[in-house]
Amino acid sequence: MKALIFKEAHAPLEYLDVDTPTPATGEVLVKIKAGALNHRDVWITKGLYPGLRPDVTPGSCGAGTVDGRDVIINPNVDWGTDTLKRNASYTILGMPTNGTFAEYIAINPDRLVDKPAHLSMEEAAALPLAGVTAYRALFSKARCQAGDKVLINGVGGGVALFACQFAIAAGADVYVTSSKQEKIDQAIALGAKGGALYTEPKWSKSFAKQFGTVDIVIDSAGGDGFNELLKLCSPHARIATYGGTRGTAKVEPSLLFWKEIEIYGTTMGSDTEFEAMVDFVNEHKLHPVVDSVYALADHAEAYAHMDAGKQFGKIVLKM
Asked: Which of 123, 162, 132, 161 lies closest to 318, judged by CA?
């Protein structure tokens, strides 16, 4: 079979013919139709991810078929039974274990859920890692309900877009930020109420004047702009953060305690939340936003596109 193979950091992935995996006792062989990139895949190639091992196939997200059944692959490896916290041994499919950027994968059937019929294979492959991260951040942590005002900071990436779509489907009023007006306009086309360019001076003041304050913030940036998010919070607002792409955040304590703001860190999600996320997508007939689709052989172009950070939605590799 064809597969991408990680050899070492700071070196291109290799596109090779390798042996089709033989399922171990209790495993099944899934024919992968599509797999989606995440930022961790780029970080792996740059040596910025822990536990790197040579000769591993990357890729956390995938969809395919097994015994005539269309399935989505849950990328959790040993989350455990506690929904609130993962096991110390927890890892994510695609490093250090073989992932989805191959024509086949041998995997335990408890990692598979039925693909919603309204999704294409490319859309289904876009869903797993980003979808469960957004679901946990928005619902398990920030407790989003109909009527909440939700601010998605940095819309355009996979998790942020899923949080945007999920919140809209749940009946919340959603607002977004971006460094590009085009991405704000695309989010509004999905159902967001409005947005702001976080690159503008004193953008939080103009946002508050136009839209008011918010009940929930979903953020993956941190950095110097984190205080601007605090300023936009209503009393008893909830912030869920799943990343720190802009570095260390400097927080003014008075912005926290006076409004009694709650801040939650979150990473991925439990198996229970994964299944609930897929059910939510199926119930609301949501379609993941796919930015672009590349052939597996053209993976270098896909990785470069992800690294440039210009995408709106998920980047997918088609087998």
From this structure: 123
pLDDT value at position 214?
98
Nearest to 156 by CA among 140, 174, 135, 179: 179
d(CA 318, CA 295): 5
Cis peptide leading into residue 96 (ω within 30°): yes
Distance CA 232, CA 12 (A): 43
In terms of phi and psi (left: phi > 0; alpha: psi -120 to 50; beta: otherwise), the region of 51 is left
pLDDT in tens, 22-49: 999 999 999 999 999 999 999 999 999 9
Contact 86, 46 (CB under 8 A): no
Pairing of the two strands 173-178 and 194-197: parallel
d(C-alpha 263, C-alpha 111), whole Å: 31
Give dist(CA 269, CA 285) in Å, integer: 21
Beta carbons within 10 angstroms of residue 224's beta carbon: 12
Tokens of 70: 């269309």
For the chain, the residue count is: 319
Q: Which domains does the chain have, with CATH numbers?
A: 2-127+288-318 (3.90.180.10), 133-265 (3.40.50.720)
